[in-house]
Amino acid sequence: MNMESKYLKIYNKVVSEIENGILEPNEKLDSESEMMNKYSVSRDTVRKALTKLEQNGYIIKKKGKGSFVLEMVRFDFPLAGVVSFKELSQKMNGKVETHLELFNIITEDHPIRKKLNCRDDIWEIFRVREINDEKIILDKDYLNRRLIPNLTKEICKNSIYEYIENVLGLKIAFAKKEITVRQITQEDKKLLDIEDFNCIVLCKSYTYLENGELFQYTESRHRPDKFKFMEFARRR
């Protein structure tokens, strides 16, 4: 058995125990040495399994203390659809708030212009999403100001998509999305309730209008223990 299949065996075993309630929230996992003996594997194999468990939001590794099971309270985040946070929040139970952290217009040369493939002025909007008194999402939105004019702070606190569709009369058609796991930044630590996490789930989205024009680029940064990403797939 190669190292990859060995670490996946450990990963799948721990995931099964967590999801079936055998390992409970905040329970400490076996130490690396104990897992090495239990599964007859190397330390590198154990660490690879633990890293994958942490990246997928099942455990948290605390320096000098060990690895602990996270509470599996997550919200469905659809990959296949183009959904505003307001629409998503209406399906959630509990208190939901949006905090507007930055409302700016980029007029000079800026790397984000390449993302939007434009020379126009760009709205730069940072919003923190708070769910049940925890700040767990940082949405960094960039919108083409020529296509989406007259934004206000009030619109951003409510729903930009609602404004685009109901006020501007434009149709949002589709988005291209990319999901990765990244190291947290100082900005994440400042704006989010990041606890002891050292990684974050990053969803990059390029969103287009019905006429095919790219109007929005978004970097949505999620605390990994609170979200699961859902997609419906059909075999053709």
UniProtKB/TrEMBL annotation:
Molecular function per GO: DNA binding; DNA-binding transcription factor activity
PANTHER family assigned to the protein according to its UniProt record, in alphabetical order: HTH-TYPE TRANSCRIPTIONAL REGULATOR TRER, MANNOSYL-D-GLYCERATE TRANSPORT/METABOLISM SYSTEM REPRESSOR MNGR-RELATED
Cited NCBIfam families: trehalos_R_Bsub
Protein name: Trehalose operon repressor
Protein source organism: Clostridium thermobutyricum
Record's keyword annotation contains Transcription: yes
Domain of life of the organism encoding this protein: Bacteria
Keyword DNA-binding among record annotations: yes
GO process annotations (BP): negative regulation of DNA-templated transcription
PROSITE patterns named in the record: HTH_GNTR (PS50949)
Keywords: DNA-binding, Repressor, Transcription, Transcription regulation
HTH gntR-type domain: residues covered: 4-72
Pfam families tied to this protein: GntR (PF00392), UTRA (PF07702)
InterPro entries: Bact_HTH_transcr_reg, Chorismate_lyase_/UTRA_dom_sf, TreR, Tscrpt_reg_HTH_GntR, UTRA, WH-like_DNA-bd_sf, WH_DNA-bd_sf
